[in-house]
Amino acid sequence: MSLEIAGARLLAPSFGMSMPVWATLIGLTLAGLAAGSALSGLDVRRAAAGRGWQPWARPAGPLSPVEETAAACRHSAANVAAIGGLFVAAAWGLAPYALYAGQRATANMDARVAAAALAVAATFVALPTIFLGMVVPLVIAGSRRGDGPRPGAAPSAADPTARGPAPAGGSGRILAWSTLGSLLGTFGTAFGTLPLLGVRLSFAAWGAALTLVAAIALVAEPARSRSRLAYAMAAAFACLAAVVVAATRTAAAQPPVGHGDRTDGARLVAWREGRTHYIEIVESAGRRFLLFDEGAAVQSIHDADRALTGTVWDDMAAAPLLAPGDAPPAVRRALVIGLAGGTVARTLAAAWPGVQIDGVEIDPDVVAIARAHMSLDDIPGLTVHIADGRIWMNARCASTVAVPPVSPSILPLPPYDLIALDAYRGPYPPFHLMTREFFTLAHRCLAPGGVVALNLVDPAGDGGALTGSAAATLGGVFGWIGRIERPDAYNRVLVASGAPPGPGAFEARRTSLSPDGAMHVARAAADAMAGRWRMTMPLSADARILTDDRAPVERLVEADVWRALR
Fold first, then answer.
1. Which residue among 78, 231, 329, 348 is the one 20 to 30 A from 178 at the CA level?
2. Cα angle at 435 between 386 and 109, to 5 degrees?
3. What is the dihedral of CA 303, 304, 307, 308, to 10 degrees?
4. Between helices 19-48 and 128-142, what is the axis angle to 10°?
5. Per DSSP, what are the bridge partners of residue 383?
6. How far apart are CA 153 and CA 150, in angstroms?
7. Is the Cβ–Cβ distance between 357 and 334 less than 8 Å?
8. What is the edge-to-edge ordering of all strands in the sheet holding 491-497?
9. d(CA 477, CA 387)
10. Spatial contact of 437 and 548, defined as CB atoms under 8 Å apart
């Protein structure tokens, strides 16, 4: 379990933490365990024939054949555990070129190379499980005893004193201890070694612990050749010490191979392992960019000299100009889910002076690095909330849902004039923020005349599977769905409200904003958006309503990517 959790963090900077990444890692890990279990059966048969993994470690003294076989199995279990521990400690260093190739392929949207690199990197992580999968079956085989017949059992013709396999209770205890070890690895890695030591030292620490336990087990067994055993374990610890030293030196020095150079001409400003993402801040041409995981997409932009970024986030800030009716929009309160580095919030604050903004971000490490390097706290009117967007909205807006408030700051407040949804995990928006039930929550949070702006990625640029399904789902909750196109990027913004804007309302609102007045930023955003918004959102024949019960967001995104590659 510790391999899977730490392995996911090792793969995330190059491949993200999506469902395919987890499926590949877990599948190869299970395959390794299955292969180890099969090999352990072969080793038991070899031990019974006197040809175990380490014949020099066979026990001394007069033993029955069953006891001798069991002792050989115990020695083999300790040996393969020691070997597995060494591979665990070194796993992070086996895959750098695969990680680098995957990172480049992901940035270039080369799905075939990225998939191959992911399989190779995950194989390196899962390799130790072949040895670890041998341990439990060998330990069970090693629990056989030969100190007398079992009650009610006839003596064996080959060995009158043999008791045979351990009773079910013994096997059950071994499996129970194995499960407890898995729990220790799960919680110890997630809440202990990863936050305290980092990814590399987590591999080294768990590998060292496993090798140490195996060494104790070997020394505890009487063997004819203790000197050879001592030499072997000394060599193993020497190798492990070298791995730990290398991990310690590199973990504090530089980020993983290839990181920091994914934006042409960019300078790496800061990086850290967040709770949900690998985070980087890079600087290029006076702008700072926030990158997550594989770095194929920019999550936030900070430009101290300009309020607008020339990207999809400007369109989200201008979305209130598409509010229902003909009256000038009033943006007094706004909610941003997926705050990241604060680009949407910063643009909103500049475009609509005096607006009060609630920014919700799930990862406190993202907030910390944005405060340190992207001036997050300098955004006027912004209140930051660290929470999952769906849970926060449940507590904030769902009066009929019995969810305790996340914090006292989200007790009932006036509704929002704009809800901006910009949350992503790698290339995928979180499925629970794309469903009919979630959009119903958003509708409850919305003031009369308010709008919801949803940022989506459409790789083909022609209304893909995800965009169509999101629009169909929004259309089942709101009365009107429009869209803002962006031909120079893969993004498009869906705008939802209770009714469409009146005829000519957008142009009237745009021209009412003075280019030299207090709302000149809103005017500039509106000028840039003119001609790119559409009153309707055509739906494809396969567009489906997304629900909490069924929302295959990952599959829809992958279908769009493959269609764009063809």
1. 231
2. 80
3. -20
4. 40
5. 358
6. 5
7. yes
8. 382-386, 356-361, 333-337, 416-421, 446-457, 491-497, 480-484, 533-534
9. 24
10. yes
Q: CA nearest 217: which of 84, 40, 75, 68?
A: 75
Sign of the four-CA dihedral 224, 227, 233, 239: negative
Q: What is residue 480's three-state secondary structure?
A: strand
Closest CA to 434 of 443, 450, 423: 423
pLDDT digits (tens, 9 = 90+) for 300-321: 999 888 889 988 899 999 999 9
Report whether 384 contacts 341 (CB < 8 A).
no
In the numeric block, which tokens belong to residue 245? 């030293």
Query: Phi and psi for 482 in degrees, rounded to 5?
Result: -120, 180
Phi–psi pair at 160, nearest 5 degrees: -60, -20
Residue 511 clears pLDDT 80, i.e. is over it: yes
Residue type, 384: V
CB 126 within 8 A of CB 28: yes
At 92, list the tokens: 């992070």
pLDDT over 70 (residue 245): no
> Alpha helices, DSSP H only, in 352-479?
364-373, 389-397, 436-445, 465-475
Closest by CA to 481, choosing from 516, 502, 460, 454, is 454
Q: How many CA atoms lie within 13 A of 542 on its CB side?
A: 8
CB 88 within 8 A of CB 82: no
- By the 8 A CB rule, do 469 and 545 touch? yes
pTM exceeds 0.70: no
Bridge partners (DSSP) of residue 419 are: 335, 452
Beta bridge partners, 482, equal 495
CA separation for the pair 150, 162 (Å, rounded): 8
Query: 332, 298 in Cβ contact below 8 A?
Result: no
Contacts 24+ apart (CB under 8 A), 236-243: 236/82, 236/86, 236/211, 237/211, 239/86, 240/85, 240/86, 240/89, 240/204, 240/207, 240/208, 240/211, 243/86, 243/89, 243/90, 243/93, 243/204, 243/207
Percent of the chain with pLDDT over 90: 19
- 495: tokens are 């705008």
Over the stretch 407-465, which tens digit does the pLDDT of each residue have? 444 445 678 999 999 998 777 888 889 999 899 989 988 998 999 999 988 776 666 78
Please give the helix or strand (H or E) that residue 421 lies within, else none: strand 416-421
- Give the helix/strand (H/E) hosting 200: helix 199-220
Spell out the alpha helix ranges (H) of 279-355. Answer: 312-318, 343-351
Tokens at residue 208, please?
A: 């060292």
Q: Which alpha helices (DSSP H) does 305-464 contain, by range?
A: 312-318, 343-351, 364-373, 389-397, 436-445
CB 456 within 8 A of CB 466: yes
